[in-house]
Amino acid sequence: MSDETQATRKRAQVQDINRSLYDFKMSEEGYERYADGLSTDIVRAISEKKDEPAWMLEMRLRALACYEEMQMPANWGPSIEMLDLNHISAYVSPKTKQADSWDDVPEDIKNTFERLGIPEAERESLAGVGAQYDSEIVYHNMRAEVADQGVIYTTIEDALHDPELEPIVHEYFGKLIPMRDHKFAALHYAVWSGGSFVYVPEGITLPYPLQSYFRLNAAGAGQFEHTLIIVEPGADLHFIEGCSAPKYYEANLHAGAVELFVKDRARLRYSTIENWSKNMFNLNTKRATVGADAKMEWVSGSFGSHVSYLYPTTIMQGARSTCEFTGITFAGATQDLDTGCKVILNGPDTTASVDTKSISKDGGLNTFRSSVMIGRHADRARATVSCASLMLDDISRSDTIPAMDVRNGSASVGHEATIGRISDDTILYLMSRGCSENEARTMVVNGFADPVSKELPMEYAIEMNNLIKLEMEGAIG
């Protein structure tokens, strides 16, 4: 067998074996699927199916009116002309009830999450797990010892049917992200389905993370989950969000929303690994508000989607509050990822630190946007933004677009950006030590991404490194 034939077979094995971890799909036979597009009848049908309180239906209908009035985003970011909302179904659901035992999950759905490693992760390192499949949560469970501490981790739908929790949802739902924020926020509030509700009582520290995993299996569909987390004073929580979808040759849409309330002296770490397929339009909105002496930490890894608009926002209201944002974005062929973050420092002695990495290959486009706003009363506020970009070829592109709005003379704000390529000398050195060229490039990229990897729990750091390896191997030949 020739060396060329061996190399060809090796390339086929890399793609056929490794990509099947995320790129498999299940039949939609027997699923409930609403008509494509958006109408009053569809919005009412979603609300009726969930047996929601009247105020939620009223909110959905107001959001639908907002959506119909508002214009599509102006062309300041990646084009979304290929996203035809008239060919997107807002609700697709397997005909199964939510289970709290893994044995009760239907076999095809269970196999999906088994292949993604969710049950194993739950057994080994998680305090609770929620698994969403298309538009509905299919599995939700939490360790008894965590529930005994008064921690609540459930779906928003279940919370709306609990007399003690429904007033809390009513108080917080939609307060951080208004429906008029942008057109896709209005769309979200009109058709949202699934997601998580988390409440951590005052002074409680969870020894293990909670996790929600979102799998979009259906073609030509949207996923619109809503995550609402309230961390009371002095409490501490790590929440992990994972996302994936198989590849189709038609557009899918993700327009979820995340609202995080971090009270005085509390700490919340929100970690995300997104591995959407490259036909996905990821138009997610995330926002946190932080109290006095509290800390908000974002750890974000974005590896999929055709187009992304993703800018987690932190509003630092309390004195001496802290925000840390650590992120990495990997854009390959056909991908235009416009990501970053926004930090608003309103309290005195507040501190924000942003550290991001981006990697571009095969013509991938990466744009990092940061917005730092220092309010008039943010005496002695400090903010630093650092972004580094690595381009692996001559046809990729990386841009950095910072914005600084400083309204207090005692504040200190800094920004630095670097863009570079892998040094040929580095590759030659590693090859002289026995590495192939591709192995050498993968090692350099992993080293570049290490500041993000080390911030993740071990199993997610491994997943991130595997995603990088998979992207690099996909470039062979």
- Largest sheet entry: 13 strands, mixed
Which range best describes the helical content: under 10%, 10-25%, 25-40%, 40-55%, 55-70% or over 70%?
Answer: 25-40%
Radius of gyration: 22 Å
What proportion of the residues form beta strands (DSSP E)?
A: 25-35%
Cα separation of the termini: 19 Å
Please tell me the overall pLDDT. Answer: 84
Number of strands: 25
What is the overall number of helices?
13
What is the total domain count? 2
* Secondary-structure-derived class: alpha/beta
The coarse silhouette is globular
Oligomer: single chain
In the predicted model, the low-confidence regions spanning at least 5 consecutive residues are: 1-19
Strand and helix map with partners:
Layout: H1 3-18, H2 20-23, E1 32-33, H3 40-50, H4 54-69, E2 92-93, H5 107-116, H6 118-125, E3 128-133, E4 136-142, H7 144-147, E5 152-154, H8 156-160, H9 166-172, H10 183-191, E6 195-200, E7 210-215, E8 222-223, E9 226-231, E10 236-244, E11 252-254, E12 257-262, E13 267-275, E14 280-282, E15 285-290, E16 295-302, E17 307-310, E18 313-316, E19 322-331, E20 336-345, E21 351-360, E22 365-374, E23 382-391, E24 397-406, E25 412-421, H11 424-432, H12 437-453, H13 458-473
Parallel strand pairs: 3-7, 6-9, 7-10, 8-11, 9-12, 10-13, 11-14, 12-15, 13-16, 14-17, 15-18, 16-19, 17-20, 18-20, 19-21, 20-22, 21-23, 22-24, 23-25
Antiparallel strand pairs: 1-2, 3-4, 5-6
Helix pairs in contact: 3-4, 4-10, 11-12, 12-13
